[in-house]
Specification:
The chain is an alpha/beta fold. Helices cover about 45% and strands about 15% of the residues. It has a single domain (about 5-235), classed as TIM Barrel (Alpha-Beta Barrel). Strands 1-2-3-4-5-6-7-8 form an eight-stranded parallel β-barrel, surrounded by five helices. The chain starts with 5 loop residues before the first strand and ends with a helix. Bound molecules: cytidine-5'-monophosphate.
């Protein structure tokens, strides 16, 4: 499995994120930096973590007019993140603009960051989607439709729950990445996540990458929790 479990660095400040990363010593990780850390620390947080040798999913979920997203992505591409994202609801032109910006901003010789789309946030219920967004189809259909749009725009994949992975791969092929949060070991608290799966289940369903937050960051021993999840995800008998 090429993509390591992605650890969501959901910390309120850089000091907490740094002391969490210090526990991993020489282990090279794939971490997710979200709005909370990025808006407080700016590009420095990306540079600092890259310097430690980790891969980065910069989860800023861009959604604006195509030209603004294109220019913003041009700037983000120069930071050295390995993966970035947009909201699929921004539309095909906006997603194509994101890719153009990334291509233009990636330093020569470097690899363009993977660009994936958020379909429906996992915090959105079907009822909310029906009544607030006026989308009158089942949630899974809406997710699939956004995934098709992202695929048509040339994106590398989508964020979705592990329960939608099979249909997305059936329709759009196995190379179209599915990145899934809501990962819990049996016995772990679900917290606010509704559609959860264990790392083994996610792998069996064909998920390409898992995003894990609290099961690692709030564990008594985060290093041990990470190793267990990584072993389960990679399918290696401990
Ligand atoms: O702690 P937990 O494992 O639930 O963290 C999941 C991470 O994935 C969080 O950073 C959350 O913001 C993110 N995420 C999500 N659902 C999405 C997109 C991102 O849970 N649809």
């Amino acid at each position: 499995m090429a993509i390591l479990p992605i650890i969501a660095l959901d910390f309120s400040n850089k000091q907490e994120a740094d002391s969490f990363l210090d526990r991993f010593q020489e282990e090279k990780l794939f971490v997710k930096i979200g709005m909370e850390l990025f808006y407080q620390n700016g590009p420095d947080i990306v540079w600092d973590i890259k310097e430690k040798g980790h891969q980065i999913f910069l989860d800023l979920k861009l959604h604006d007019i195509p030209n603004t997203v294109k220019q913003a992505m041009k700037g983000l591409a120069s930071l050295g993140a390995d993966m970035v994202n947009v909201h699929a609801v921004g539309g095909r032109n906006m997603m194509a603009g994101a890719l153009e910006g990334l291509d233009a901003g990636t330093p020569s010789g470097a690899k363009r960051p993977l660009c994936i789309a958020v379909t429906q946030l996992t915090s959105t219920t079907e009822e909310q989607m029906n009544t607030e967004q006026l989308i009158q189809v089942p949630l899974e259909e809406a997710v699939l439709s956004y995934a098709k749009l992202a695929h048509e725009a040339g994106l590398d994949g989508v964020v979705c729950s592990s329960h939608e992975v099979r249909r997305i791969h059936e329709q759009l092929g196995n190379d179209f990445l599915t990145v899934t949060p809501g990962i819990r070991n049996s016995g772990d608290e679900a917290h606010d996540q509704k559609r959860i799966a264990s790392p083994e289940k996610a792998r069996l369903l064909g998920t390409n990458a898992i995003v894990v937050g609290r099961s690692i960051t709030k564990a008594k021993d985060p290093f041990k929790a990470y190793r267990e999840i990584k072993t389960a995800w990679e399918g290696i008998k401990a």
